[in-house]
Write a structure and sequence with these properties.
Radius of gyration: 20 Å
Number of domains: 1
Keywords: Cytoplasm, RNA-binding
CATH class: Mainly Beta
Strand content: 25-35%
GO molecular function: RNA binding
Strand order of the largest sheet: 2-3-5
Order of helices and strands: HEEEEEHEEH
CATH superfamily: Small protein B
GO biological process, one term: trans-translation
Number of strands: 7
Family: Belongs to the SmpB family.
Structural class: alpha+beta
Subcellular location: Cytoplasm
CATH architecture: Beta Barrel
Distance between the termini: 49 Å
Length: 119
């Protein structure tokens, strides 16, 4: 909790999954607390269990199965002393979409570069 409060959490490449009727958060990196030395082995990317109501788990499991979506953690925040994770449903890009986004990004960067040279 102290590392979370210090903002030493990284959500990049993390995702959530429903397995065995439980919601699990995988690959979320929470760094070890700097002042806590000698308290045994610490795994920063261990699987963490999310506490959700049964109807929430069932609803998310149905959406994940039916629509082939991914469950992505968007943010971590505190409310009444508890750490909460905001989850979002998202669909991955197809290969065509990825190439299209890269082309647009390159074109925008080239335009900015030309505009800066012109000035």
């Amino acid at each position: 909790m102290k590392s979370l409060r210090a903002g030493r959490v990284q959500l990049r490449d993390s995702y959530a999954r429903i397995e065995g009727g439980q919601a699990l958060l995988l690959k979320m990196n929470i760094a070890a607390y700097a002042q806590a030395t000698g308290f045994g082995a610490f795994s920063p990317e261990r699987t963490r269990r999310l506490l959700l109501h049964r109807f929430e788990i069932d609803r998310l499991a149905g959406k994940l199965e039916q629509d082939r979506l991914a469950l992505i953690p968007l943010s971590v925040y505190f409310k009444n002393g508890l750490a909460k994770v905001e989850l979002g449903l998202g669909r991955g890009r197809t290969m065509y979409d990825k190439r299209h986004v890269l082309q647009e990004r390159d074109a925008a960067m080239e335009m900015r570069r030309l505009h800066a040279e012109y000035r």
